[in-house]
Q: What sequence folds into this?
């Protein structure tokens, strides 16, 4: 009821306030880390109180740097659970919330960063300020201790001693970036939603941080190489200290990082995506040898982000082992396929979500992200993704399905779907959705969601203006995907829709090829299962339980290991027991604890999912099957009747021209106009520039990420 929703809203507000308090404290620790006050007073005091025969000096690092983030992640899981309960209730209402941060979300185009909101730019500047502050403070304190006399004691010149000090500090600053590097790529994160972020939209932060990390670590390595060369200590490059920093491990980590870094630049990534994909798995080598380089005690500073990433990665591995029930495929003449999967009613997702697909018959190791084009509200037992031929993998898939001797079933594994916790399109009077080519796919899911809101919930929905650009007439058949394959769910008479479709490379409608859309139905297989939440209906709470229990088990195992094996040898001196052995044992226990707790949670929920799978498979028996082999439902809907009469009436076709986006947007006089754009970089920048020009305060810009 309303009371329980208000209580959950209040709980969410309390959790968010507590999270912000802890996070501010965590950032404050990073600000204070390079200062004398922290290193000479605070840290020794904390170590004196926390050092024990169970954890040694590692205990204080875990308490200060690891525990706060895992605590936030656990709270985030509860926050997400309440959010899903409330959003489930909101499906029965048409309420919308005012966006208080609208002015801060206005776009800014920055060379090298692309389109960023003002709030993103503010945080980016603050983060760079943190790095500059930390580096300058480290240097100020360390350089003050370097004198001709102190340098001579080590047989060095003053500049050589300062180079040595600067090289070390560059590594320390790189560690700050590394601490945040894995948060954006944790797809099922319970931390990102607390800050209104999704993994897909946060990939750019991972890219920024990756470039900064590798720049600093490369400078760290180069400076040390120069220092060793000028001081005739080249043999240092081959040292692997038992109880100190391992230079060899650092070099291996740096080489692995450089190989990854070289393939991340846009030109290489676009032209040789598979090279980028495979080399990025070197992150395992990079992180392993990084920990061996600095030791596990210091590595706990960077542990929490990577720990949460490992939990997410293992859960994705468990989900990907199951073959998914593929119902049908709609094959479009513009080399586009819509795949329709069976899903459980328990699984809900928001518009613009993405899902990762693997088709073993094409490649057993390649996973590709695609935008979900269905609505879980409108189509509770089906999930669809739209795939346009853009590379070798998608081309093979299209050829496989479109060939005359097509397959009668297809093995598919998935990860996801992943998307924003909630979306609120109802706050706008008008939605202007601008797309180029396959950029229309996220808008298909938005449109279907709005059909549900207007037809089932009787909500007042915003007017929709879809401005879409295609290169050829055959691409216009993508507009057919705006409506689900189910006739019962395709009524949108209560929606005010206007489609402005531009065909840029043709002067008139091409009638050379008959443009039919075909539907291919697949045979059911008893071993296939519908898509279900990987951790069941209360997946957020289960995720929090995995994070907490796995970390507690890790602390228990490490405590026992330290107390009864390491401490009798080392006595907390950190001068006898091998750093590398300690690091390997810690990493082994982390992996074991995550695997045990995540597997137990997954298997527990799999039993419940299995019951629903049986029910869905019984219902799947109604799937049309005219012959033992796969066969085509030939839709026989030519472009002239695309896709139904009502949609055709709402569509204006323009040939041989591009949309005048400035005119289209400035003509909108409603008080609140949501401007969503998805397509080529040039298009996104043009729309962002119009919305940030200051000439129309009613335009609220949002760039939509999409995958095809």
A:
């Amino acid at each position: 009821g309303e009371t329980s929703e208000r209580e959950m809203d209040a709980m969410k507000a309390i959790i968010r306030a507590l999270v912000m308090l802890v996070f501010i404290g965590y950032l404050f620790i990073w600000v204070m880390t390079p200062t004398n006050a922290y290193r000479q007073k605070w840290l020794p005091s904390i170590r004196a109180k926390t050092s024990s025969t169970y954890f040694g000096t590692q205990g204080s690092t875990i308490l200060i740097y690891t525990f706060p983030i895992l605590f936030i992640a656990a709270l985030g899981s509860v926050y997400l659970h309440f959010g899903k309960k409330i959003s489930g209730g909101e499906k029965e209402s048409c309420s919308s919330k005012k966006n208080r941060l609208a002015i801060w979300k206005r776009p800014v185009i920055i060379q090298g960063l692309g389109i960023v909101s003002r709030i993103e730019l503010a945080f980016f500047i603050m983060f760079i300020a943190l790095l500059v502050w930390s580096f300058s403070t480290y240097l100020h304190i360390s350089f003050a201790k370097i004198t001709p006399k102190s340098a001579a004691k080590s047989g060095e010149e003053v500049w050589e001693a300062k180079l040595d000090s600067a090289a070390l500090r560059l590594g320390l600053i790189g560690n700050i970036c590394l601490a945040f590097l894995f948060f954006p790529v944790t797809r099922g994160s319970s931390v990102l939603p607390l800050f209104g972020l999704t993994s897909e939209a946060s990939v750019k932060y991972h890219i920024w941080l990756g470039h900064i990390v590798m720049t600093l670590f490369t400078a760290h390595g180069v400076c040390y190489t120069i220092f060793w060369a000028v001081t005739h200590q080249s043999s240092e490059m081959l040292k692997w200290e038992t109880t100190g920093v391992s230079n060899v491990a650092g070099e291996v980590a740096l080489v692995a990082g450089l190989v990854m870094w070289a393939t991340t630049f846009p030109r290489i990534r676009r032209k040789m995506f598979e090279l980028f994909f495979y080399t990025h798995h070197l992150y395992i080598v990079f992180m392993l040898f990084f920990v061996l380089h600095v030791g596990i005690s210091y590595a706990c500073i960077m542990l929490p982000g990577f720990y949460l990433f490992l939990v997410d990665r293992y859960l994705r591995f468990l989900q990907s082992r199951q073959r998914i029930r593929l119902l049908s495929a709609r094959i479009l003449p513009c080399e586009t396929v819509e795949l329709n999967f069976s899903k459980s009613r328990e699984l809900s997702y928001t518009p613009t979500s993405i899902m990762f697909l693997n088709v073993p018959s094409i490649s057993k190791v390649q996973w590709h992200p695609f935008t979900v084009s269905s609505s879980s509200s409108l189509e509770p037992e089906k999930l669809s993704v739209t795939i346009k031929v853009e590379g070798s993998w998608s081309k093979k898939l299209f050829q496989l399905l479109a060939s005359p001797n097509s397959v009668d079933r297809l093995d598919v594994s998935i990860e996801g779907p992943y998307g924003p916790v909630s979306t609120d399109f109802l706050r706008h009077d008008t939605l202007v959705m601008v797309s180029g080519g396959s950029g229309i796919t996220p808008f298909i899911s938005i449109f279907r969601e709005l059909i549900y809101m207007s037809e089932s919930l009787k909500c007042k929905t915003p007017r929709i203006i879809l401005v879409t650009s295609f290169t050829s007439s055959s691409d216009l058949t993508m507009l057919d995907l705006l409506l689900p394959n189910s006739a019962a769910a395709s009524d949108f008479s209560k929606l005010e829709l206007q489609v402005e479709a531009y065909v840029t490379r043709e002067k008139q409608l091409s009638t050379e090829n008959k443009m039919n859309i075909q539907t291919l139905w697949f045979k059911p297989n008893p071993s296939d299962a519908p898509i279900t939440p990987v951790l069941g209906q209360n997946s957020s709470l289960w995720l929090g339980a995995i994070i907490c229990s796995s970390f507690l088990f890790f602390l228990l195992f490490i405590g026992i290991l330290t107390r009864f094996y390491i401490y009798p040898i080392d006595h907390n001196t950190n001068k006898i027991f091998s750093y590398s052995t300690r690091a390997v044992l810690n990493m082994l226990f982390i992996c074991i604890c995550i695997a045990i707790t995540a597997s137990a949670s997954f298997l527990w929920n799999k039993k419940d999912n299995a019951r629903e799978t049986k029910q869905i498979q019984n219902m799947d028996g109604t799937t049309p099957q005219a012959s033992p082999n796969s066969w085509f439902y030939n839709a026989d809907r030519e472009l002239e009747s695309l896709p139904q009469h009502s949609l055709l009436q709402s569509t204006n076709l323009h040939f041989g021209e591009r949309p005048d986006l400035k005119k289209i947007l400035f003509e909108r006089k409603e008080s609140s106009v949501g401007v969503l754009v998805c397509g080529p970089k040039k298009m996104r920048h043009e729309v962002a520039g119009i919305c940030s020009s200051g000439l129309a305060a009613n335009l609220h810009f949002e760039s939509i990420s999409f995958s095809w």
Notes: The longest helix spans residues 579-619. The mean pLDDT is 86.
